[in-house]
Amino acid sequence: MGGLTLADALSRARRRLSEGGIADAGREARLLVGGLLQLDPAALIAGGTRTLTAEEAALVEGGLARRLHREPIYRILGQRPFFGLVLSLSADTLEPRPDTEILVERLIPVARGIVAAKGQCRLLDLGTGTGAICLALIDAVPGVQGTGTDISAGALETARANAYINGLSDRVETIESDWFAAVGGMFDIIVSNPPYIRSKVVDGLADEVRRFDPRRALDGGEDGLDAYRTIAEGALAHLEEGGVVAFEIGFDQKEAVTRLMTGHQFRLVDAASDLGGNDRVLVFAAA
Length: 287
Hints:
The protein is of the alpha/beta class and about 290 residues long.
């Protein structure tokens, strides 16, 4: 009797994920099986008749069990793509989402303009987590030098590992800091995707988020604005002339965050929506 073929494994994974209530089960099956077996999409198709080894079959089975337990697929794989980079994940870091790539996109022309005018651009990423925003901007714009801060030593370890595996270690430093507390110097771009979910909402989030993303990377306090208040209070003292402060925000926070920033001598200069049409990115300059 023949063993489990790659095509059989894909079909079985798709069926079990669908029966387990996982949306877009076909795509997830391909991501999971391909990722665990280190096969690209073409190899998944071309190798359908190949029989899996016992070790490969067990690897797929274990991954399926974890996904059906609602562990996010990229956490199972241990890494995920972000803006052309591959980023390792850890229990100390928020998993970067595609919406955050919009923040990077809006800042690339800003960084390029600063580099053209000054020869370099100093970037501060507050609450850097995996390093996603900082590393993506450094990679996209020659002349950007980044500093990533986080309150979590484990997150900073992950960010440093991601800088290394993406060949960017010489252009980034990390600082363990509670927002600006341990930060010195001036920066051309200050950016953050801070915790912005209201405390009472966190426990009602999807299992994939609530159980696997670190709570302190999600919980923004009673109204979701605690981190924005702290950053608004400290940003001007660390911002170079002509610099900007940029945020990812919750879908209903544009007006509130704008009021906070205008109350600290900033003006809104750019805003962008996410792929679902929700307010997601705000960029401010000194008033």
